[in-house]
Design a protein that fits this description.
This protein has a single domain (4-141), classed as Phage minor tail protein U (Alpha-Beta Plaits, 2-Layer Sandwich), CATH 3.30.70.1700. Helix content is 29%, strand content 34%. It is built from 3 helices and 5 strands. It has a 5-stranded mixed beta sheet, sandwiched between helices. The two termini are 16 Å apart.
Length: 142
């Protein structure tokens, strides 16, 4: 059995790959999502375990909040229509996880999604690449 954070990341990857969004992609779970710029003309959606915050719930249980990053990246040539479509995809992914439990890990309860900054201006400026990262937080009580 994998670590809880890995199981949650795998469940998020499965949800991304098992549902239709405005653009086709195959999400992959990785630890070090480094890509060759030449391959970035294809949309990349990467799921990365990020962090864990735990707090006491009562004498016998704790809250464990697992943070998982979902990166959405594509080379854009700074084209407004392409960037607008990618922003829509980011919003769709965010909305999906806010509204749907993880099918393969129903014990993980959705807590929050963060998308700050909404995209990485430095990636757009220096690499002509759209990059947006959603941080999803799921809670387990143990």
């Amino acid at each position: 059995m994998p670590a809880n954070i890995v199981a949650i990341a795998d469940a998020i990857t499965a949800e991304l790959n098992g549902n239709a969004f405005s653009q086709p992609f195959t999400a992959q779970r990785q630890y070090l999502p480094i890509y060759d710029l030449k391959s970035m003309s294809e949309l990349k959606v990467t799921v990365v375990p990020k962090g864990l915050v735990s707090s006491s719930l009562d004498r016998s249980r704790d809250n464990f909040d697992y943070q998982i990053d979902v990166g959405i990246q594509k080379k854009t040539q700074n084209q407004i229509a392409t960037i607008d479509a990618l922003m829509l995809l980011v919003e769709q992914i965010s909305d999906y996880f806010r509204s749907n439990p993880l099918s393969s890990y129903p014990g993980a309860r959705f807590i929050s999604v963060e998308n700050t900054p909404i995209y990485a201006p430095d990636h757009l400026e220096t690499m002509l690449q759209f990059t947006s990262v959603l941080t999803l937080t799921y809670r387990l009580v143990r």
